Amino acid sequence: MAKPLLSAAVSMRTKRKSTGDLPSGKERAAKHPRTTLDAFFSPKVSVRMGSGIDGVAGGVKDKMHDVVLSDEQRQVLKMVVEDGRNVFFTGSAGTGKSLLLKAIISALKKKHAKKSDIVSVTASTGMAASNIGGMTIHSWGAIAPTVESVDKLISYIRKARPALQRWKATQILIIDEVSMVDGHLFERLAAIATKLRKKTDRPFGGIQVGFLFFLGIALLI
Ligand SMILES: Nc1ncnc2c1ncn2[C@@H]1O[C@H](COP(=O)(O)OP(=O)(O)OP(=O)(O)O)[C@@H](O)[C@H]1O
Questions:
Q1: 59-95: burial string, b at 16+ Cβ within 10 Å, e else
Q2: How far apart (Å, rounded) are the C-alpha atoms in residues 60 and 43?
Q3: Positive or negative: CA dihedral 196, 202, 203, 208
C-alpha cells in the first residue's frame, strides 16, 4: 500500500481547555498536568492522512492522526518559533521534515494570530507551496522572472500593492524547497528586501528567513 501523504492540516494541541471541562483538585492535576513552556514545545500535531495523491486516488480514508514531535523536531521548532533564529535543517527522505514544517507554520500562525501578515509561507514550486498552504516565492514577491534589474523589480513591486504590503509587513519568511531557488534569485530577493525595508544594516532587510531545503527546511528569520 502506498505511504500516506501529508496535507497542510496540522494543528497544535496545546490550547488550554476551560476549567469547566476538567475535574478539579488533585484528580485534575494528575490527569491534566499544567501547561508549561516545555509542554508547549512538545506539541501533539494532528495530521490529515490520505489527502494529496492518496486522497485523490481514494485509497486512504481522510482521517486525523495525532503524532508527537520527536526531540529533534521539537528542538528545531523551538529555535524557529520561540528563539526567532534563522534555521536551516536537512535530512534524508522520510525523516519528518514536511511534518515539522507544517508544525512550525501552525505554531507561528498561532503565536502571531493577531498579526498574521508577519508570517509568510512560500515555496520554490507551486506544488510545494500548495502542500503547505502558501504561494510561490515569485508570486509572493511579485518577482517577474524576465526582469533582471533589481531597481526595475522594485518599481514593479511598488505598483503591485499586495506584494508591496507583503514585503513590508513580513517578519518571518518560510521558503520550502529552497534548493530550487538559485543563488541569483536569492541575491535579488535579499537586495529587494534590504532596499524596500530600508534596513540596510541587516541581511534580508531584517526579515527572519527559514528554508525547507530539498531534503530539509530553510527559514529566513
Ligand atoms: N514525530 C513523528 N511521529 C510520527 N510520525 C511522524 C513524525 N514525523 C514524521 N512522521 C511521519 O513520517 C512520515 C515521513 O515524514 P515526512 O513526510 O514529514 O518526511 P520528509 O522528511 O518530509 O520526507 P521526504 O523528504 O521524503 O518528503 C510521514 O508519514 C509522517 O507523518
A1: ebeeeeeeeebeeebbebbbbbbeeeebbbbeeeeeb
A2: 25
A3: negative
Q: How do residues 13-66 score in pLDDT, each as one tens digit?
A: 233 333 334 444 445 444 444 444 344 334 444 444 333 333 333 333 334 457
Q: Which residue has the higher pLDDT, 221 or 108?
A: 108
Please report the ipTM that was assigned to this predicted complex. 0.97
Q: In the numeric block, which cell numbers belong to residue 113?
A: 494570530
Query: Is the pLDDT confidence value at 174 over 80?
Result: yes
Ligand 1 centroid to 206 CA: how many Å? 31
Residue type present at position 180: M
* Ligand 1 atom having least distance to the Cα of 73: 1
Q: Which stretches of 58-199 are DSSP H helices?
A: 71-81, 97-111, 126-131, 137-141, 150-159, 161-169, 183-197
Ligand 1 lined by 93 (C-beta under 6 Å)? yes
